[in-house]
Amino acid sequence: MDDFVYKKAFLDEPEQIAVVETVRGLTPGFYIPRTRWGKAMSLRMNCLGRHWSARDYKYHTVRKDVDGLACAPIPDALQMLGQRAIVATRYLPQGLVRPFDSCIVNWYPEAGSKLGDHVDNSESPEAIASGYPVVSISVGASCVFRMGGLSRTDPYEQTTLESGDLVVFGRSRRLAYHGVKKIIPGTTPATLPLPEPGRINLTFRIV
Ligand SMILES: O=C(O)CCC(=O)C(=O)O
Ligand SMILES: [Fe+2]
């Protein structure tokens, strides 16, 4: 089996609505992350379970570079979606599924919002070496997503991620480069309580 799996329509419409309502109702809520150079990222973020700092690229228990508040725990309903993704894609058998300790919620609010090509490597060496997959669930506007290899210059597969789509990557692809090139305006389902062009992505990890 490929270690990068893409599954269309993982979430049905009521589940997509529930995800948006859940993430918009969290306290503490979204913030605009700033890099170590003080530059504002083009998205809003809320880290659940553990806080990932855009300043030092490390995980913390509090939102140290934002407002010092403890981050909200991962709601059970979201944790269940993350774990279900691993079984639904047959990435691992049910008995090997473990709870995620981090769910980063990214909200891309504009057509120009993006996330440059990067590797998810802020996690502990043991977590990365285990090859346990990263689960990424998208809701709202479609985006152009690209997944590459272990070197920045390896070829990339480009995919349009639509509302409800799922991406799972681990094992040999755990440290693969990936990024969000752009948000496609006019694609946010009208039934979602999310201003257009809004895209929400949930990324679950064991850190
Ligand atoms: O928004 C996405 O689809 C990807 C998010 C991502 O790669 C990350 O948060 O590390
Ligand atoms: Fe990532």
Automatic annotation (TrEMBL):
- GO BP terms, alphabetized: oxidative RNA demethylation
What terms describe the molecular function in GO for this protein? broad specificity oxidative DNA demethylase activity; ferrous iron binding; oxidative RNA demethylase activity
Name the GO cellular-component terms: cytoplasm
Q: Does the record's keyword annotation contain DNA damage?
A: no
Q: Copy out the cofactor comment.
A: Binds 1 Fe(2+) ion per subunit.
Entries under InterPro entries matching the protein? Alkb, AlkB-like, AlkB-like_sf, Oxoglu/Fe-dep_dioxygenase_dom
Gene3D superfamilies in UniProt? Alpha-ketoglutarate-dependent dioxygenase AlkB-like
Fe2OG dioxygenase domain residues are: 99-207
Which named protein is this?
Alpha-ketoglutarate-dependent dioxygenase AlkB
Origin species, per record, is Humisphaera borealis
